[in-house]
């Protein structure tokens, strides 16, 4: 029984509440950093898968024609529809690509660049290291590239030998 004039106070002090807020803030920060890292890894995996898929189609074309398509051919929807029916410009869309990215957009569709940059894939066909755009049936090698996030560099594939 409490004596009159004395009361038992319950609750948290201001210091305890501030400590809890700081701890919750730290936990939220850790979770958000891990989540953003996981999303970047997922987008990088998508980029790698897309580049490997393009390589498969390009190699199938080579096995039937004994040359690789030029960059102009790969960015021409009519040529693609005739020669690489399974490849569409939408396959060139990097996970971070938007139609406002003018560097690798034509007619509101993604296109390949000769070298990748953030948001854009790269395709550089050559003939022994020299451009083959002028005579596009002489392309004997190529480099496919995707720029990865989180300072992971560039993912590169070359023709199969």
Largest sheet: 4 strands, antiparallel
Major sheet strand order:
4-3-5-6
Order of helices and strands: HHHEEEEEE
* Number of E-state strands: 6
CATH class: Alpha Beta
What share of the residues does DSSP label as strand, in percent? 15-25%
Overall tally of structural domains = 1
> Could you say which structural class the secondary elements and strand pairing correspond to?
alpha+beta
* CATH T-level topology: Glycoprotein, Type 4 Pilin
How confident is the prediction overall: mean pLDDT?
89
Low-confidence region ranges? none
Distance linking N and C termini: 91 Å
Large-scale geometry: elongated
The helix count comes to 3
The CATH architecture can be given as 2-Layer Sandwich
Measured on Cα atoms, how large is the radius of gyration?
A: 27 Å
Helix content: 25-40%
What this model shows, in words?
The protein has about 160 residues and is α+β, with helices and mostly antiparallel strands. It has a single domain, classed as Glycoprotein, Type 4 Pilin (2-Layer Sandwich). The protein is built from 3 helices and 6 strands, in the order αααββββββ. Strand 1 (about 105) and strand 2 form a beta hairpin. About 20% of the residues are buried.
């Amino acid at each position: 029984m409490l004596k009159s004039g004395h009361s038992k106070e319950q609750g948290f002090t201001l210091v305890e509440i501030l400590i809890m807020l700081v701890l919750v803030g730290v936990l939220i920060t850790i979770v958000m950093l891990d989540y953003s890292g996981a999303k970047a890894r997922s987008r990088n995996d998508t980029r790698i898968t897309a580049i490997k898929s393009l390589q498969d189609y390009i190699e199938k074309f080579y096995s039937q024609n004994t040359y690789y398509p030029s960059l102009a051919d790969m960015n021409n929807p009519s040529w693609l529809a005739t020669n690489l029916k399974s490849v569409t410009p939408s396959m060139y869309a990097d996970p971070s690509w938007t139609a406002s990215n003018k560097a690798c957009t034509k007619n509101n569709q993604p296109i390949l660049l000769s070298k990748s940059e953030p948001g854009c894939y790269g395709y550089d066909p050559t003939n022994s290291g020299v451009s083959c755009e002028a005579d596009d049936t002489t392309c004997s090698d190529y480099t496919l590239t995707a720029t990865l996030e989180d300072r992971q560099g560039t993912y590169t594939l070359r023709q199969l030998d």
